[in-house]
Amino acid sequence: xxxxxxxxxxxxxxxxxxxxxxxxxNLPCSWVFYLTTFGQILLVITVIRVLKDDxxxxxxxxxxxEDKPISKEVYR
Length: 76
Fold this sequence. Notes:
elongated; mainly alpha
């Protein structure tokens, strides 16, 4: 089963937030260390998966931001 890039990103975020919570609660240093190491490895895997993801778009830099489209007549 292949996990999507966004699901892997969510898992990585939860693991690294757990590290912060564990460190704040003064849990044993070995737990924090191993979870930090696991989170960093997971982060590298996530970055590689996102960069290799087969995502294409027809947008260009001329389209500006997707959440705030502007008309092309403004620049002409």
